[in-house]
Amino acid sequence: MSDLNLDDPYTVPTKHWHALDDGRVQCDVCPRNCRLREGQRGLCFVRGRTADQIVLASYGRSSGFCVDPIEKKPLNHFLPGSSVLSFGTAGCNLACRFCQNWDISKSREIDTLSADASPEALAAEAGRLGCRSVAFTYNDPVIFMEYAMDVADACRERGIRAVAVSAGYMNAAPREEFYRHIDAANIDLKAFSDTFYEKVTFAKLPLVLETLEYLKTTDVWFEVTTLLIPGLNDSDAELAAECAWFAEHLGPDVPLHFSAFHPDFKMRDIPRTPPQTLARARRIALEQGLKYVYVGNVHDVDGQTTTCAGCGDPVVKRDWYVIKEYGLTDTGACKRCGTTVPGRFDGPVGTWGARRLPVRIPPVPAR
Ligand code: SF4
């Protein structure tokens, strides 16, 4: 018997689905297009069919909350130095063999969703903690979009922004609806090969590229991350192809992050990414004309520093998540030559540093 039930306070109706002639109901949120019989859950686990409709069964529940530096998302051009209240739920619509958050994203245990938080409680807590934004991260907000959008709206009412960390695997109509509520995003571009996407993530590359091109047409500030996995997505040819596409379709001002892999989940036999690989990827991207290319998950001040495109001066020096020197005005212009760095800058640089602060939000009914 199914455990899905609209009487459950954490289960809500959704709207991106349609009935099929064969009696199944199709969820239209992501390109998985799960076709479900009564009582079945989709691949993401948190959406499923009950009462002849697709429901979200994790509204108002989270796997936990933590205050992080915004640079950890990673976003280097969005309210630098500020703190962000991060949270995720359970499940995921991808199935990456290298997942670095697999305990959450692959969870089939509702126990993972141990923390309750209504959108209003979450926004209030973010305000109380002095966070300038809230981030949907750890797992992909695509699958809990109804909850994420309500949290984003509650945050916006308090002047707090909303950040999505996503693999960008989403269908067009829900994507447009979702990103109307979002201020900034970091999208994982997991590789630049169809084979990698199909074999390692069980998804399709062109549909992710479509999301990146879509974001370029919106006001959402976005940055892109590629996790480099030794021997799988780090060849010169693949990196050159990715960066050439990036320059042509997204332009040189969108920041690109190359981050280091560590062995995890079903890929424990592959070694950690050497720093030389990150440096090589960064060099290839700079040669393709990209202006803001960063390396992550390592100490590398040069590879984490923002350089002014006008005068060539280092304007934001970072070491991992810590800002060491800051040479921008409150609106993001170089103090030396006045050239504006693309991004969202609004006031003085934050001072959160590298701290990670786990948070408990007082339990209240979700609705
Ligand atoms: S969001 Fe979940 S249920 Fe919907 S199509 Fe994607 S994986 Fe399937």
TrEMBL record:
Its cofactor is [4Fe-4S] cluster. Keywords: 4Fe-4S, Iron, Iron-sulfur, Metal-binding, S-adenosyl-L-methionine. GO terms for molecular function: 4 iron, 4 sulfur cluster binding; catalytic activity; metal ion binding. Binds 1 [4Fe-4S] cluster. The cluster is coordinated with 3 cysteines and an exchangeable S-adenosyl-L-methionine. [4Fe-4S] cluster binds at C92, C96, C99. CDD domains: Radical_SAM. Coiled coil: none annotated. Residues 77-297 form the Radical SAM core domain. This is AmmeMemoRadiSam system radical SAM enzyme. It comes from Virgisporangium ochraceum. The gene is pflA_1.
